[in-house]
Amino acid sequence: MTVGLAAEVSAASPDAVRVRELANELFDALRSATGDGVGITRASYGKGESAALDIVDAKARALGLPTERDAGANLVVTFAGSEPQLPFLACGSHLDSVPQGGNFDGAAGVVAGLAVLAGFKAEGFRPRRTLKLFGLRGEESARFGKAYLGSSALFGRLSAADLAVMAADSKVSLGDCMREVGVDVDRVKNGQPLLDPKSVAAWVELHIEQGPVLVARQLPVGIVTGIRGNLRHRVVECVGSAGHSGAVPRWLRHDAMFATAELITHLDHHWRTLLERGRDLVITTGVVTTDPHEHAIARIPGMLRFSFELRSQSKETLEAFYDLFLSECRLIGEERGVEFRLDRRLESSPATMDPAWVARLKQAARSLGLPDEEIPSGAGHDAAVFANEGIPSAMIFVRNEHGSHNPDESMAIEDFVAGVAIMRSALKEAAA
Amino acid sequence: MTVGLAAEVSAASPDAVRVRELANELFDALRSATGDGVGITRASYGKGESAALDIVDAKARALGLPTERDAGANLVVTFAGSEPQLPFLACGSHLDSVPQGGNFDGAAGVVAGLAVLAGFKAEGFRPRRTLKLFGLRGEESARFGKAYLGSSALFGRLSAADLAVMAADSKVSLGDCMREVGVDVDRVKNGQPLLDPKSVAAWVELHIEQGPVLVARQLPVGIVTGIRGNLRHRVVECVGSAGHSGAVPRWLRHDAMFATAELITHLDHHWRTLLERGRDLVITTGVVTTDPHEHAIARIPGMLRFSFELRSQSKETLEAFYDLFLSECRLIGEERGVEFRLDRRLESSPATMDPAWVARLKQAARSLGLPDEEIPSGAGHDAAVFANEGIPSAMIFVRNEHGSHNPDESMAIEDFVAGVAIMRSALKEAAA
């Protein structure tokens, strides 16, 4: 990958050195402030997330860039253009994480944005359009079941029901957690946008790839074409009847675990069939548990709770598979004398990245001597929310080993430098 | 059931009145001392269990019966015979319970024994053989994974490995919990019997039925013919790889929940096949959980823990199905790139009740105008341990609605009185 590389991405260039130093400093600071002994934990609208915002905020100010917190309590760093009445260019990503997650998921995009803005300032670039870096809150679904909370709040897309959801790790509602960190919850509750989509000319987000594709294909970066949507239930409760394991014969059992095992095995078969037909789909039951207050080895589990998630690039595939899920719940429920109780259905729409921006990022990559490979995003990103508000949106993926949502995330800083260079080149062109 | 009933079991007889009063008093006292708000909790070698022993102990002494704690810290109430050198007749059951369990599972047999001894004393009966009532500890497996701890300790059948097992509800070992309540742990650890099986002429245990058979057949009592054995793993760990749910496609997943669901569904099919061939078997996975420290809706579960239990009246069926289980673990493990890790295998042998005692109990039932129906025990009981030590053992089941190991156990006191009358009649004949 070194032949034909432009100066900005060659390891010894002053730009590359500056980006690498900033990245190492910020990633180290984030890791040491939010490490949990196993991985890092920056709970959405919680302490670790706020600490991460503070670290980036302080660094931005130290670099001479003005910062503020918007009405959604997100960090906003501004690099003013000469024509501030023009819609601004936005970049960034989120600063929260799953529990015991990795240091790069989300944070890489914020550090990248700061590196770009700091670079512009250092070289005395005077753009027409203002550029803004967003350090968003609440992108991960681990704490409140729903993803994209920070970006959804920005556009007035959260409901009172969303705000009433209790945190998985404490008995506090999303609304209260938001208020605690300074969100204007009344506006959010009333569905008022905190940011006018028309004021945003584009959203550009750098993110580590969370799947294995770039590693397998030996590509340092990829240009994202679209983002999967999802359908979710935070909690499905399979309710049967508890009983003494030795005393109730098979035909009198209403075993919540055997019923759920059959449900999942059926869905797995349907999944395989759909994949063979070329449909895009993944199914996950990430949280599974019998009731710790009453489960025992010698007790037929009368209740099992599990989370349920479907993801696809096609809304039609999501809905069709969801119908299949409901129908399997009914059939197995009847056959086994159990009931599957579903909590509120949560959904995020699939999104398409802006073709002009995809072309611009690919062109920027080529001009830097980097590959311009297209890649779909299996995971969700705030960029999907911006795109679905009609804002031209684009993403750069950076190669990352061992996936994400775990402590073993591994992004080489040279790959990150390459991603930043693409982003910088494209934003410079659009802002000029 | 009222036609032809003997005086002892007709509701207005002095015997029936005395048994009913004693039972109501003791069951009320037990419930109020060990209620947990939902059901009752008398943890094996824990506080609730000790409280239950104290309640029965105090009542026995109030009735003029001498009491002691044996080297296993069990309650022993003695009604001395005129020929104390003869092997004694033992009766009783256990006083521990599962968490949020019912008031009768175990306690009914201890109250029944006290009612019998108190009745003998009240009427001035002078037996040749001594009678002893045991209020045993540690029958339930909920806290330490293994059942029959109290009776196994009595006969030197616990190992150092058993004593090292940690409680499910605290970080204390079985050995330490035993020492805490006064067990002579050094003798137990060395496998020394605390009670010589040759000194015991018989073990007679009354217990609520934990299945639905007596209710369905409208029988107040049943005479037990045999007791199922079991094979158990307290914890099977399915180890796959965690990953971002959106980013890892199906063919790269090592999902611990989907693998376990498939395992259980396969075992369920095999189970159905064996039942169709007339084999006796039940399979239970009572405790199932992803890792609460790292599970999340958007994370492929890299690990799932579950308990595994097989029960059968046939040792051969247990071993054959266990082999099938191991082979399914291997096959699914290979296919899905996961590993099923098994902790120590625990086992309890099936047991046959003594034919002469079964005949004696049936004869006693008939002479009281009660049904003498035979019934196998699907659940395990301390009687299995006594039987497997060569002690002639027998059990009376009392009808009970809603099963056991839950707060809804429901035993009518009239049915209990009938069971006590059978026990009393048979013990009187054997002791005379």
Sequence-ordered SSE layout with sheet pairings:
The structure is a homodimer of 432-residue chains.
Chain A: H1 14-34, H2 47-62, E1 67-69, E2 75-79, E3 88-94, H3 107-123, E4 131-136, H4 149-154, H5 160-164, H6 174-181, H7 185-189, E5 200-208, H8 213-216, E6 221-227, E7 229-239, E8 243-244, H9 256-276, E9 282-284, E10 288-290, E11 299-300, E12 303-312, H10 315-336, E13 339-342, E14 345-348, E15 351-352, H11 355-367, E16 374-377, H12 382-388, E17 393-398, H13 413-431
Parallel strand pairs in A: 3-4, 3-5, 5-17, 6-16
Antiparallel strand pairs in A: 1-2, 2-4, 6-15, 6-17, 7-12, 7-13, 7-14, 8-11, 9-12, 10-12
How does this structure look, described?
The structure is a homodimer of 432-residue chains. Chain A has 432 residues and is an alpha+beta fold. Helices cover 38% and strands 20% of the residues of chain A. Chain A has helices at 14-34, 47-62, 107-123, 149-154, 160-164, 174-181, 185-189, 213-216, 256-276, 315-336, 355-367, 382-388, 413-431; strands at residues 67-69, 75-79, 88-94, 131-136, 200-208, 221-227, 229-239, 243-244, 282-284, 288-290, 299-300, 303-312, 339-342, 345-348, 351-352, 374-377, 393-398. In chain A, helix 9 packs antiparallel against helix 10. The longest helix of chain A is centred in the C-terminal third of the chain and has 22 residues, at 315-336. The two termini of chain A are 29 Å apart. The model of chain A has no long low-confidence stretch (mean pLDDT 95). Chains A and B meet through strand 7, strand 8, helix 9, strand 10 and strand 11 of A and strand 7, strand 8, helix 9, strand 10 and strand 11 of B.
